[in-house]
Amino acid sequence: MGRSPCPSGKKDIGIRKGAWTTAEDMILTDYIAAHGEGKWRSISKQTGLKRSGKSCRLRWLNYLRPDIKRGNITRDEEDLIIRLHKLLGNRWSLIAGRLPGRTDNEVKNYWNSYLSKQVIPRDHKDEQNDTVNNTVKNNNKEAKMEDTHQLMMPSPAAPPVPPPFLPLEDPLNLPAAPASPSSMCGEGLLSPDITTGMSDLLEPAAGFSSFDEFGFGQFDLVLEGDWGSLQCIEESYASHYDGSWDCTALNYITDEWIL
DNA sequence: AACGCTGTCAACCGCCCTCGG
DNA sequence: GCCGAGGGCGGTTGACAGCGT
């Protein structure tokens, strides 16, 4: 698999490229076991590996790390990837961070080669479901898509419908929730691509170190159906609100998760 | 058996961010 | 504030495997 070791470099003279050998893996593994991660560029100098620092880092993070989980992506992991991608877009490192033992590269490859072909066509189909004419030829494909689609729909055992997620009460003079996501886009609050736009919109605010901390905290609660705690987080958010976020987007995020 | 097509996935590339001087 | 080095990340490439014809 992977590229053959054909040094193409005019500018990287002396730097090996392509597939890693077992010997190189051992050298890198031994070095990191002894010295720890980091200082990737110095690794090649210290060990004699003719690899760039980036290449060493990539090899370690994507393949050699002892906590890498091998084997097929499970149904639960697939479900989580789909949900997280819906929330975060192509932020593979963040998505992988929620999947212990999985790497961003692995998640990205899995999405590009498998999930994107199921989820995206399905979403597209939903937009024009009145015009689709199923054929016998597509039966198997459709069945597979349906299977994936169910992952994104509330299951019979899904959490109860949460209380309405209304705009927070006003002491902070927060803007009212928009009538629809499209209106948010129209006002420039969210980019047309809602999944990536949200991450750009929700920059760190007081009380939370990052959008990810805030967002994942809510995400976990949604998954668990813990609407009470979710409300507490929202209230906490309201008490810390410093105006750097637009809370209307949070309402939409939660709607997105639930839907 | 040979060939072409397609999917998979390790690895590379280039951009961007952070941090220290 | 500027600059360069180091590192992180998403997008893309390309070798290989498997399958169909």
Automatic annotation (TrEMBL):
Task: Please give the GO cellular component terms listed in this UniProt entry.
Answer: nucleus
**Gene Ontology terms for molecular function:** DNA binding
**Entry keywords, A to Z:** DNA-binding, Nucleus, Repeat
Q: Which domain of life is it from?
A: Eukaryota
Q: Name one Pfam family in it.
A: Myb_DNA-binding
Q: What is its main location?
A: nucleus
Which protein are we looking at? Uncharacterized protein
Q: Which organism is it from?
A: Trapa natans (Water chestnut)
